[in-house]
Design goal:
binds magnesium ion; globular; binds adenosine-5'-triphosphate; Rossmann fold; alpha/beta; 150 residues
């Protein structure tokens, strides 16, 4: 587990770039934290590093899943906020798309913890004054590796 304080959004951007550069095929990132915590903000920084233009990264609150094409990887960006029941994950193709090819980002992963791929990196974002406390919780060896490098 690793805890990083990002006093402002620039610091969060730097962390996002660093994390983004460590990601590879098959990685799954579960982002948690309240409305406006910075889940999309951090995902955007990671996606930029992977070759997606920031303007192309949008909140999938209504679309539920956005797909971006980075330089090397396909990025799948979920937002589960609007789902009411775990069964709805099936309808949106969650089990088909989460994990597998490319890199998966899942906002509001805490709503359906049992549905997450067994191995993943949880990124918990909490407000701390005007900044954010960002906690990385690895689930699996691959994600422990990432945490050690951050
Ligand atoms: N240190 C910080 N790190 C990240 N974002 C910050 C920070 N300080 C301020 N912000 C601002 O907080 C907002 C975070 O919004 P964002 O859409 O990323 O939240 P979210 O967690 O995705 O919310 P939602 O649950 O609605 O999807 C942005 O407007 C960003 O500029
Ligand atoms: Mg968001």
């Amino acid at each position: 587990m690793k805890r990083i304080i990002c006093e402002n959004q620039e610091k969060t951007k730097v962390l996002g770039r660093q994390l983004g550069s460590l990601l590879q095929e098959g990685d799954v990132l579960c982002l948690t934290g309240e409305l406006g915590a910075g889940k999309t903000f951090l995902t955007t920084a990671m996606a930029e590093t992977l070759g997606v233009e920031a303007k192309d990264v949008t909140s999938p609150t209504f679309s539920l899943l956005n797909i971006y094409h980075g330089t090397k990887y396909v990025l799948k960006h979920f937002d589960l906020y609007r789902l009411n029941r775990e069964e709805e994950l099936d309808d949106i193709g969650f089990y088909e798309y989460a994990g597998g090819d490319g890199i998966t980002f899942i906002e509001w992963a805490e709503l359906f913890p049992d549905a997450m791929p067994e191995e993943h990196l949880t990124i918990r974002i909490e407000n701390q004054g005007t900044g954010r406390k960002i906690t990385l919780e690895p689930h699996g060896k691959r994600y422990e590796e990432i945490c050690e490098k951050v």
